[in-house]
Amino acid sequence: MTCRNCGASFQGSFCSNCGTAVSAPTQPSNAWSNQSPQSASAGSTYSTAAMVLGAIAVFLVPILFGGAGIVLAVIAKNKGEKNANVALTVAILCTIAGIIFGAAVGASTYSN
Ligand SMILES: [Zn+2]
């Protein structure tokens, strides 16, 4: 161990030179590394992807794309993304809209 206070080398929990207690050097760096990646990853990657899939779901296979969008929105929620709730709402609404849209197109196709 090297004393953080006086720089002396020693063994044990206290510096033999000045008596400073050893504070585990991994503790502050752990708290730091725990904080920064989380705040960095709290972006909107999954939320954005969920909303894009929702937009696709309105026109294409709503069960597939809408379902994927909802799953991504739930992942975004678990990751604490800011727009997760919005993305989830958009994904669900787009899925419903896609199903209604698809049903309307299907009905008009059948009526011909
Ligand atoms: Zn010391």
Structural account:
The protein is mostly helical. 68% of the residues lie in helices and 0% in strands. Helix 2 runs antiparallel to helix 3 and helix 3 runs antiparallel to helix 4 (84-111). It has 2 domains: 1-40, no CATH class; 42-111. The protein is built from 4 helices and no strands. The protein has helices spanning 26-41, 45-59, 62-78, 84-111. It starts with 25 loop residues before the first helix and ends with a helix.
Detail the topology: elements first, then pairings.
Layout lengths: L25 H16 L3 H15 L2 H17 L5 H28 L1
Helix pairs in contact: 2-3, 2-4, 3-4
Shape assignment: rod-shaped
Number of helices: 4
Spans of at least 5 consecutive residues with low confidence: 35-41
Using the CA coordinates, give the radius of gyration. 27 Å
Give the termini distance in whole angstroms: 85 Å
Query: What compounds are bound to the protein?
Result: zinc ion
**What's the total number of strands?**
0
